[in-house]
Specification:
By secondary structure, the chain is mostly helical. The chain is built from 7 helices and no strands. The chain crosses the membrane at residues 75-94, 115-136, 142-163.
């Protein structure tokens, strides 16, 4: 192998590292690239490749769409959490009615609903709030706590106002 072929082989290996080599080595590389047509093509190809990964293209922010299945799963969980609360309240109101006298709601029924809320709804609300805090963001946790407090405080008041 002649000296020219050795320089040619070394230049092919050093062209990708052109920015990191010494100044003297860089001058030798540039001189060889000017003389050698094959190395010129290789150097131009490497420049085009490195330009395609330039910082200008990398700095453009690309919006990443959320995964469709994950969004559906989160929506399903939120619906389930709301549904569990509604089902518990519906069950408490229906099971507290005294069907012996009438189907209307009286004061005793309202007290049964109030007791049921503290016995069944309150522990379920605590569990569902912890679940919400674990799997969802802070906004959903605050909404969950606020809705539960309103349900616990206002359901007996609303029922007594509605039926008395």
């Amino acid at each position: 192998m002649s000296d020219q072929e050795k320089i040619h082989q070394l230049c092919k290996e050093l062209i990708p590292l052109m920015e990191d080599v010494d100044l003297q080595t860089k001058e030798i590389l540039i001189n060889h690239i000017q003389d050698c047509r094959t190395c010129q093509q290789y150097y131009n190809k490497m420049n085009k490749f490195s330009e395609s990964f330039s910082t200008e293209h990398a700095s453009e922010e690309v919006e990443i769409p959320p995964l469709k299945k994950l969004v559906q799963f989160n929506t399903g969980l939120k619906t389930l959490l709301i549904g569990v609360r509604v089902v518990i309240l519906f069950y408490l109101i229906l099971s507290s009615q005294n069907f012996a006298d009438e189907i209307s709601i009286n004061l005793t029924t309202i007290h049964h609903v109030e007791a049921g809320i503290f016995l069944f709804y309150f522990p379920a609300a605590i569990f569902l709030t912890i679940f919400t805090f674990t799997f969802f963001n802070k906004k959903w946790s605050l909404i969950s706590v606020g809705a539960d407090v309103l349900v616990i405080i206002l359901t007996p008041i609303f029922l007594s106002w509605l039926f008395n």
